[in-house]
Amino acid sequence: MALTREDMSAGLSGQLEVFENRMKLRQAELKSLYTGLYQNSWMYAELIGEMEKYYSERDDRLKRSDAYRESDPEWYRKNDMLGMMMYVDNFAGDLRGVRKKLSYIEDAGVNVIHLMPFLDVEKGRSDGGYAVRDFRKVRKDLGDMTDLSDLATACHKRDICILADFALNHTSDKHEWAQKAIAGNKEYASRYFIYDTDEIPNRYDETVPEVFPVTAPGNFTRAGEGNKYVLTTFHPYQWDLNYRNPRVFNEMVYNFLNLANRGIDIFRLDAIPYIWKELGTNCRNLPEVHDIVRMLRLITEIVCPGVLLLGEVVMEPEKVVPYFGTVERPECHILNNVTTMATIWHTVATRDARLLRNQFDIVSALPKEYVFLNYLRCHDDIGWGLDYAFLAGHEMEENAHKKYLNNYFVGTEGYSNSRGELYNEDPKTGDARICGTTASLCGIEKASMDGDKEGMARAINLDIMLHACMLMLSGIPMLYSGDEIGQINDYSYLSNPEKKDDARYLHRGKFRWDLEKKRINHKSKEYLIFKRLRELERIRAGHRAFLPDAKVWTVNTFEKSILVVGRLLDGEKIYGVFNFSEHEKTIWPDEDEGFIDLVSGDMCPMQELTLPGYTFFILCKEG
Ligand code: GLC
């Protein structure tokens, strides 16, 4: 039986015994992984000593929460988890501002807030906060570490978790280490990849693809007096850390534990596949990356077992799943469901749900222990990492199809109402990705500009339907702040010299509290979208068939625009039926009577189902 919070005695926290017991169970593996990578027992001993120190310093309240979560390791595998991601400044000015907005967050049904990077960065050269200058300091205009702890405490009182980024692949070039390294300090230089000549950089370039071929081409940046070559996989000011150096690993673990002790519940391991480099490879997903993630997991389980690891693995499906590790040696607790996200948008553009059906089947066949973070869009662009082998069987060739998708979402092909922008269009390969808010990609922006009422109703339906489709998936759904009121693109980035070259700012606009106020008008789009999303989230949280242990399957209806997903648990059967076409469609599912549509409350004949364009049913039958 799970212990209640009250059961956890406050005295427990002071006991080093708890730490030692956790350590005993894990130290053999931790030591073998560490010494396997570093052959350095002195640094290992230092790591253990520091882990004990961070454990001792950990607040009693957090230790109680650790013990509670340890006693119920399923605590995050539920059907009522709902995330919302937000930039602190865009949402509420600063960390204190976010604290003042917790009632709104609760009203939106949210119990996980992803605070986008808030640590100290150099203004104007931060890649949206992912080029950290000091891992121990909050960005000045957002507050300080005390504000962070206070926000965490206030959130925890309301059962809201905090998710934060841990950008461990690189530091800013203004980080103290980088500054010392470029000034010639050899010890600090060994924490990065810095070369005097282009010999090794050229060899890397032969096999390492570029992440931002247009906005930040190349893998190396010239820096310092000697005009040295520094490995910068992302932007020129983001210097890749060298995890071959145990000092880097240890110090980054201490930074991680320091933040964990501030009350962070979930860490998003930013760009995790990139953290190990090896000449002659593409420097992604190397086996050592998995050793490092496994060590982070063990360290977390020993010092702060209430904390979860979310891996940011934006890769092909077969590369993503290994980051869960195995049942005996788990790595991340949660991973981004990136392929499903991209496939949903492919389905919008093609009105053909066959690939999405296949994708649901693939995800549903995975072990039920795996928890995915499901989302329609995030702060980054949408890349077209689809199953092209499958699409080839349906006459969709990769390059031509990517071109179509990009054209569709910028609104120039395929009867599209989308208002997206291209991102990193590579003139060499013709490749590009898409930016835009969910509402703008669904046609809300265009309908609003055209004053087209019917178009607006259709676009809102599509927007809600995509959310409903995301909510059919097991795991943690994540909204992007503003999407719950249908916020459209923000073009102000174009007049900001620090942002104008990065189209991702199109969908990272300020939260529009002026529009949020419009929710009192029951005819406003803000009211409609917010209310309909809340209904769907309540349905999800109120029905056991949405628990991750449910059996999940899809149904072939022979109508390619329609996706039918079934869920079954303890006799409760749910069908989500989604029409991805703007036209009315009918299907004849082979099911019994007795289903109720949970949204309208109406009985639904399962012999013949007719769905107007962009509508859906969530049908339920108790066993
Ligand atoms: C991650 C972030 C992205 C950033 C990159 C480099 O992919 O999501 O915004 O550009 O890491 O830190």
Brief rundown of the structure:
This protein has 623 residues and is of the alpha/beta class. Strands 1-2-5-11-12-13-14-17 form an 8-stranded parallel barrel. It has a 6-stranded antiparallel β-sheet with strand order 18-19-20-25-22-23, with helices on one face. A 3-stranded antiparallel β-sheet has the order 7-9-8, covered by helices on one side.
Written overview of the protein:
α1 (16-38) packs antiparallel against α2 (41-57), α2 (41-57) runs parallel beside α11 (246-260) and α14 (338-350) packs antiparallel against α15 (354-364). The two termini are 27 Å apart. The protein has 22 helices and 25 strands. It is an alpha/beta fold and 623 residues long. β12 (308-311), α13 (317-320) and β13 form a beta-alpha-beta unit. The strands form seven sheets. It has an eight-stranded parallel β-barrel. The site of alpha-D-glucopyranose has 10 residues, from loops. Residues 127-128, 130, 167, 234, 270-271, 312, 379-380 line the site of alpha-D-glucopyranose.
Which terms summarize this structure?
623 residues, eight-stranded parallel beta barrel, six-stranded antiparallel sheet, 25 strands, globular, disordered N terminus, binds alpha-D-glucopyranose
Q: How many strands appear in the DSSP assignment?
A: 25
Number of helices: 22
Sequence stretches where pLDDT stays below 50 over 5 or more residues: 1-13
Using only C-alpha atoms, the radius of gyration works out to: 24 Å
- Indicate the mean pLDDT: 95
Strand order of the largest sheet: 1-2-5-11-12-13-14-17
N- to C-terminal separation? 27 Å
Task: Write down the overall geometry.
Answer: globular
Which sheet architecture does the biggest sheet show? 8 strands, parallel, barrel
Small molecules held by this entry: alpha-D-glucopyranose
**Helix content, binned percent:** 25-40%
Structural class: alpha/beta
Q: Which band does the percent of strand residues land in?
A: 15-25%
